[in-house]
Amino acid sequence: MTLTSFGPANRIKRSAETHPLTWRLRDDGEAVWLDEYQAKNGYAAARKAFADMAQDDIVQTVKDAGLKGRGGAGFPTGVKWGLMPKDESINIRYLLCNADEMEPNTWKDRMLMEQLPHLLIEGMLISARALKTYRGYIFLRGEYTTAAKHLNRAVEEAKAAGLLGKNILGSGFDFELFVHTGAGRYICGEETALINSLEGRRANPRSKPPFPAAVGVWGKPTCVNNVETLCNVPAIIADGVDWYKSLARPGSEDMGTKLMGFSGKVKNPGLWELPFGVTGRELFEDYAGGMRDGFKLKAWQPGGAGTGFLLPEHLDAQMYAGGIAKVGTRMGTGLAMAVDDSVNMVSLLRNMEEFFSRESCGFCTPCRDGLPWSVKLLRAIENGEGQAGDIETLLGLVGFLGPGKTFCAHAPGAVEPLGSAIKYFRSEFEAGIAPVSAAVPPLARPIVVGA
Hints:
Blueprint: H1 34-39, H2 44-52, H3 55-65, H4 77-82, E1 94-99, H5 108-115, H6 117-131, E2 135-140, H7 145-160, E3 176-181, H8 191-198, E4 222-226, H9 227-239, H10 241-246, E5 257-263, E6 270-275, H11 280-287, E7 297-301, H12 321-325, E8 335-340, H13 345-359, H14 365-382, H15 390-400, H16 410-430
Parallel strand pairs: 1-2, 1-4, 2-3, 5-8
Antiparallel strand pairs: 5-6, 7-8
Helix pairs in contact: 2-6, 2-9, 3-6, 5-6, 5-7, 6-9, 13-14, 13-16, 14-15, 14-16, 15-16
């Protein structure tokens, strides 16, 4: 798989009018550095924002465009920006870019940072201007070493060109930007855990309220946005609200375009910038090319390991938050995974829950103890040693760890695929339940939480 696979040959022509995120990409997959980026209209939006727009107008424009977070939660970006304090006496504010992309099957932000680092920097520069933040951090997944190298070089290029640092573009506005690599924890994708980690603390989520806009990094007002979210900002400022809204397909409640992809045993696994509202079938058949010869589609996840499984019959759902919600799960990151007919769902779920269990921060009891319990049960079922009632216990855990039951959204995301797998493939779980006569008595096989 390559990060520059954008669809079948001769099918897609990327342009600034239709592909605001990816039209500048090079065919050879190399990074676009400052001179080439500026030759392709780079930083024109930043110059417009600094010269012609009041700070509040930038916020309102992003709000009117309907830009939503692209990290998975989908919260309206302009609304989030509007939560930052209006008090001009608060002169220390921070902008954080969440680049801790650790969702399994997701690699969209990596492509943007490795190949278009200046697009992210321009997005952060305009956002900083709007939010009156004087310092920014790109909190980067530690394993993304190439992205770190490219981002650091791009930051230095921008500094040398007067696009970062003091008195940017003669405006009197100062903005410093730093690349901060994390230590490799999935939980840092949660914004307050990210803030704790940036401060040098254990990466546990914080209680909210107060929200980061009021009390964030080092106790100061802070805004946290995802990489892809920030990369949308320059095009919105440059080309306007009406154009941006027009990119989405009819029926979509989400505006603009989205980086979407497909992994698994498909003929053309890859990543594509597509309008919100395309169907899962278009993504799967027209772009991913369907399943490889000899394999059939058994199930698919629409947006990372933390989203529920869907069946082939759900492929006609539109790819936007509300469209995917209609078939019972979430859009997530928008990078789908195909499950072929050779995969045992119990084994797949055991593997997933092991990951989520290991990545729990351990702060709250349902997540800390419930996820290892699910792994223990799934391992027994996988080995044909499950006991009567184990499936009901797993479904009980899905309820106990659901939305609103835990301190953050880690556990609800972890159990969503488990609940959907049992719903659609219960017979595979039942096959792992040992006959009563052969089953080990319950007291002889205690479940040791955390084992």
